[in-house]
């Protein structure tokens, strides 16, 4: 896929100011295009179901993005569940039922709006980290046992970003939701997945109905340093 081809090119080329900004470089336009794609990935709140890709293609796209992610010690602790159609609707209806009982009454109207937006989207990607696998790796690599849960979290973050970028490349919008841990137990029961799978986040995606949110990178500027 084009995204992964471009990523491979980026990883095998030294990044210099000329590479990024000098368009006379024979490959510069390709590199700049990829960086522009990175900037285009941001939260879209108003999503719809006007998607022309079939579900098998989207499932393969998401799976390929996951398999292409690096992880410390090759942990491979991330687990994904992709929800389409009725499964997508049933999940967010369950989230609504749970939060209706857990959320203070004066805050629930805002929660309702957000859940309705999720329901209006085309699909959901649920990200889990397999705690049983993490414990096994801790036993196998005792010297790093304290750090492995932190590396697992980093692995999940990379997987989330990779999947989001893959969806953005084919013109789909998305946003992340964090209703865990309140929904964890009933979600595991509903999906019939292992109780050892710890829910990390919920990525909803769909057609872009309104792009009214500035890039995430504009909200908080991370400190940036270059040392020589």
Describe this structure in words.
The chain folds into 2 domains: 1-40, no CATH class; 43-209, NADH Oxidase (3-Layer(aba) Sandwich). It is built from 9 helices and 5 strands; from the N terminus they run αααβαβααβααβαβ. The protein has 228 residues and is of the alpha+beta class. Strands 1, 2, 3, 4 and 5 form a 5-stranded antiparallel sheet that branches.
Question: What's the SSE blueprint?
Answer:
Layout: H1 2-11, H2 17-21, H3 28-40, E1 46-48, H4 55-67, E2 78-84, H5 85-102, H6 108-120, E3 123-130, H7 131-140, H8 148-169, E4 173-177, H9 184-191, E5 197-210
Antiparallel strand pairs: 1-5, 2-3, 3-5, 4-5
Number of helices: 9
Q: Name the helix and strand elements from N-terminus to C-terminus, one letter apiece.
A: HHHEHEHHEHHEHE
Question: Could you give me the name of the CATH homologous superfamily of the largest domain?
Answer: NADH Oxidase
- CATH-defined topology of the largest domain: NADH Oxidase
Tags for this entry?
alpha+beta; NADH Oxidase; 2 domains; five-stranded antiparallel beta sheet
Write a brief caption for the model.
This protein is an alpha+beta fold and 228 residues long. The chain has helices at 2-11, 17-21, 28-40, 55-67, 85-102, 108-120, 131-140, 148-169, 184-191, and strands at residues 46-48, 78-84, 123-130, 173-177, 197-210.
